[in-house]
Protein: Oxidoreductase
Amino acid sequence: MTDTVPTMYEWIGGAERLERLTEEFYRRVREDEVLAPLFARMADDHPQHVAVWLGEVFGGPEAYTEGHGGFPHMLSRHRGRGIRPEQRERWVKLFMEAADHVGVPTDAEFRSAFVGYIEFGSRRAMANSQLDAKPGTRETIKTWGWGEAPPGTD
Ligand code: HEM
Structure:
């Protein structure tokens, strides 16, 4: 991939689009019978924090690492919660519905990479939330890119 290929952060529309996405997503979460109990004590700025996280993952500013406790903090927020498969599935479903609602780009290149990360992240979150989860060695946020189909490929 060359330097002229935009990051996924730029492609989605930067911090503004990510904030609209997470606001819309957690609005749905709060009304969802499967997920609402898990998020009952969620702080008002939680959606904004997750937008900052996603921005860093998709190649934007390293603002979660610099200002929000980085990878260890995210890990600590999932640890011990015992996320169940049906909760993860609902999380992904509502996330994608929110993405469509706020106009996240629908091109095949972007969506395949975007869904790939959401599948990866949600499965890791579920695994790390189990009571018997083994502590990992990672301390930095894993970034995500276009994978096999960057923009402009045939
Ligand atoms: C790609 C997938 C995911 C990402 C990127 C993600 C990201 C995050 C981040 C960054 C935080 C900490 C926010 C902060 O700094 O305050 C957090 C907290 C949390 N996440 Fe996730 N998460 C993912 C998947 C999930 C899933 C699948 C569930 C459950 C179904 C879940 C449940 C929670 C809960 C319950 C919290 C704590 C909320 C609170 O503070 O009360 N997450 N997540």
User: Anything to note?
Assistant: Residues 108-128 form the longest helix (21 residues). Residues 38-39, 41-43, 46, 49-50, 53, 68, 73-74, 77-78, 81, 83, 87-88, 91, 118, 121-122, 125-126 surround protoporphyrin IX containing FE (CB under 6 Å). The two ends are 14 Å apart (CA to CA). The chain has seven helices and no strands.
